[in-house]
Write a structure and sequence with these properties.
Radius of gyration: 19 Å
Largest sheet: 4 strands, parallel
Helix content: 40-55%
Distance between the termini: 19 Å
Order of helices and strands: EHEHHEHHEHEHHEHEHHEH
Strand content: 15-25%
Length: about 270
Amino acid sequence: MDSKKALVVISFGSTFDETRTHDIGGIEQALAAAFPAYDQYRAFTSVIIRKRLAERGIKIDNTETVLQKLADAGYEEVVLQPTHLLHGEEFEQKILSLKDKFTAKFQKIIISQPLIVNEEDYKLAAAAIAVQVPPLAPGEGVVLMGHGTPRNNNKAHGYTYVKLQEIFDSMKFPVIVGTVEEEDTPNFEAVLEKLQERKYKHVHMYPLMVVAGDHANNDMYSDEEDSWKTQIEALGIKTTGHLCGLGRSKAIQAIYIQHVLRVLSLED
């Protein structure tokens, strides 16, 4: 008899129905199609998002609860695939930290990696993002809003956003990368400086996030006076908002599939 195998797709989560369906759901469907031998489960790491969804009658478990259910159901091999963008706080504290607790409960517990962890991932992610952007006229550019982290993970893991900026620059692709977290680098002040330096007349704005949730809809592209859109338009620059998370991109989904293949090949 074949052993019971599960693939748990772990996301930060989203209260936006469309992003759960297309951004998170897009990755989940791609992984389910790529690994049909594994039963698939969903977990969200954000306590606040799970609570808000529960208030609307939508019950989504955290990773620990899912793992306990799988152990009780007799699963022998479990693969955890985070959809988080980088090796940050959520991944470390809510996924990696569970390995010791659950190792004895399964024959194999395999933890895969977030979207961007090595040189190849950076290049693939940059190319996947570039493909989504419409053809640009002279004087047009792109602004990407990343989340950032208040901790030193960005520094510890090669300054994720700075490095992406360098890759876009080397591709001669007119992109400015910024983060919502003021303490991270580059923050929005740095974005505004670069916009004035580069003298773009029109920018296309995208979330550099797996899901286009609260930050994309409010901080990036709302009419509130402190949104990125409002402040950029105050400089006389025209904006076009693209409220689609990275999760719905086939090229991004392929990177997650590659990560699972990589950890499975290491186990063999």
